[in-house]
Amino acid sequence: GAVVSQHPSWVICKSGTSVKIECRSLDFQATTMFWYRQFPKQSLMLMATSNEGSKATYEQGVEKDKFLINHASLTLSTLTVTSAHPEDSSFYICSAPVVAGPRTQYFGPGTRLTVL
Amino acid sequence: DAKTTQPNSMESNEEEPVHLPCNHSTISGTDYIHWYRQLPSQGPEYVIHGLTSNVNNRMASLAIAEDRKSSTLILHRATLRDAAVYYCILTFQGGSEKLVFGKGTKLTVNP
User: Fold this and answer.
1) Reduced 3-state DSSP string for chain B
2) pLDDT of B93
3) Which of A1-5, A52-56, B93-97 has maximum average pLDDT?
4) Interface probe, candidates B96, B97, B103, chain A, greatest A C-beta count within 10 A
5) B46 to A109: CB separation less than 8 angstroms, yes or no
């Protein structure tokens, strides 16, 4: 199956700093990628859709100025958590769909963000 | 998006078959049935998908009811590594690629 990577796998930062998380599709091109957030013992919540060559689309209630998304190429999307606070501590996961057919998606391994 | 209903949790013994049910009574004719699973502290992984016919792959089998209002993911011989949360999700071909995750079924495998 297709492979999606994320970097870093975990990060600890101080409150008020910004953190960048990268999502790469390693063996296929992805014009669209998705970013999810998952709090402990909860399901994945879609945050935004990252579109190559255009602005990201954010889900209701997600602050676009706080969670900056850049889809720089057909294989790379980045999520920057700006001015992070402890409540932003979560597990961030990206995914990329296979273009054709039933839209099967492949997920990255996730990034654990801890804001002190 | 059409909604799915799954039991919150299930238990199985190692090396026994596991049948994970999913109800999707509002499924439309072009909705695919996807199953993903999430192991602890990992991103979800694709398991299997189907449209109308039963499907088999190296990980599992998918049995789809004739009226398509329900489906069952079958793990033929559960191992400890199959302990995960299993999500049944419908995707509409030609529609949004977004996946809406419910709570899924947490599968516990006993040694």
Assistant:
1) CCCCECCCEEEEECCCCEEEEEECCCCCCCEEEEEEEECCCCCCEEEEEECCCCEECCCCEEEECCCCCEEEEEECCCCHHHCEEEEEEEEECCCCCCCCCCCCEEEEEEC
2) 67
3) A52-56
4) B97
5) no
Write out chain A residues lying below 8 Å of B53, CB-based: none
3-class secondary-structure state, position A1: coil
- The predicted-structure confidence for A72-105, as pLDDT tens digits, reads as follows 899 999 999 999 999 999 999 999 987 666 778 9
Interchain pair A102, B41: CB under 8 A? no
CA distance A18 to chain B (A): 23
